[in-house]
Amino acid sequence: MFLVKVPRDGSTVDLQPLLFTLFLDTATHFLFGEAIGVLSGEEPKNIPVDAQTFLKEFQNGFEGMGMRIISGRLSFLIPSKRWLASCAIVHKYIDFLTQRATETCKTTTGALKRHNSTNNTQSHSLLDSLLDLTDDSIEIRNSLLQGLMAAQETTSVLLSTTFFLLSRSPPTWAKLRRESMGLAASGVTFESLRSSRVLRNIQYESLRIYPVFSNIVRSVLRDTTLPTGGGASGQSPVFVSKGTTLLFSFYSLHRDPVIFGEDVEVFNPDRWEVIKPGACEFMVFGSGPRACLGQQKALIEASYFLVRMALEFERIESRDSRPWAAAERLTTSNANGCEVAFMQGAM
User: Fold this and answer.
1) What is the DSSP letter of 77?
2) Do the beta carbons of residue 328 and residue 70 sit within 8 Å?
3) Measured distance CA(284)–CA(281) in Å, rounded
4) Cα–Cα distance between 6 and 199 in angstroms, integer?
5) CA dist 161 to 58, 87, 235, Å?
6) 15, 163 contact by CB (below 8 A)
7) Distances (CA, A) of 114 to 125, 137, 143, 147
8) Which one of 54, 78, 295, 346 is least enclosed by Cβ atoms within 10 Å?
9) At 13, phi and psi to the nearest 5?
10) H/E element, 2
11) pLDDT tier, 111 (very low <50, low <70, confident <90, very high otherwise)
């Protein structure tokens, strides 16, 4: 369905909204057991609002959360009426799907029919698993929302930015196409996607130069000391007191020329054949016990999509001379979208 909406005659298309809709469908299929049909138009029956409205309100809620996180203690100055209305619509939609799944799982005695993951060969969604664990509708809703924010927005932003960069680097697209043909010849598998250095390098470089999460905020729970950051040189320890709000800029971290080379503003996937940044030097998925649980899922989904597009189209061209400009929500995407053109060629 996605490929049907991509022109094959060199016409300009903005991939960003298409990717948002595609990964909203894939995310809701994983979470709820069925896609909400925002891309295909095949929506679940009797839903409170249509899929396009849900997408709009979901993104409004996402943007409102991002603004409040960025504003910190001044968040009370941001008008809340429109944001709360969007949140209410999203909650109503998810509650409807949860209630319907609950009714479907009920036995004739009125109790919830618990899924047996050992014997059940049917598709098992996150909602199914949550219903196995709890009857608390608020907890279920919150877990589904967290999963939806992680699964939909992040992968679509990663791919939108990656295609923006690839459209301005014909040699990299040609390399990706050759790699994709090689993978297709032997059969595309989870393992072949995960082990492809070309795919890894392209995605890592995209995430380095324009990270999906450009900043992250943490509150200090107890008095502590950071190993560096103090003194005139910035290499001495620095005391951080309980209650302090810390902001980490991954955008800045990933532009350290000591680690990534002097050409930090240049999209150069080949640098990853040489550099080996540490866990606290390249942090697109976080680090430590709070590192992103969906890292492999996001990278494999993006890898498969890149391979599929590279097999389908011989060339990609940029149709937007404007530079990348940050649009801050919880994630950071290109405010100018991803205006490109694809040309089809023989494999």
Assistant:
1) G
2) yes
3) 9
4) 22
5) 21, 27, 34
6) yes
7) 13, 16, 18, 21
8) 346
9) -140, 140
10) none
11) low
Q: How confident is the model at residue 146 (pLDDT cuts 50, 70, 90)?
A: confident
Sole residue written with tokens 């993104």? 59
117, 139, 173, 311 from 133: Cα distances, Å: 13, 10, 45, 42
Alpha-carbon span 33 to 43, nearest angstrom? 13
DSSP 244-285: -EEEEEHHHHTT-HHHH-S-TTS--GGGGGT----TTTS-TT
pLDDT at 52: 85
Q: What is the pLDDT of residues 161-211, one digit of tens each?
A: 999 999 999 999 999 999 999 999 999 999 999 999 999 999 999 999 999
Kindly tell me if the per-residue pLDDT of 109 is higher than 50.
Answer: no
Could you give the CA distance from residue 198 to residue 24 in angstroms, rounded to a whole number?
27
pLDDT reading at 288 higher than 90: no
Distance CA(306)–CA(323), nearest Å, equals 22
* CA 220 to mean position of chain CA atoms: 26
Is the pLDDT higher at 149 or at 15?
15
C-beta separation of 208 from 254 below 8 A: yes
Count the helix, strand and coil residues of the chain and give each as a percent rounded to the nearest 5.
50, 10, 35
C-alpha–C-alpha distance, residues 70 and 68, integer Å: 5
Neighbours of 337 (CB within 10 A): 18
- The CA-CA-CA angle for residues 279, 285, 290, to 5°, reads 85
- Name residue 234's amino acid: G
Task: Compute the distance between CA of residue 293 and CA of residue 14 in angstroms, rounded to an integer.
Answer: 30
Across the chain, mean pLDDT equals 87
Identify the band that residue 97 occupies on the pLDDT scale cut at 50, 70 and 90.
Answer: confident
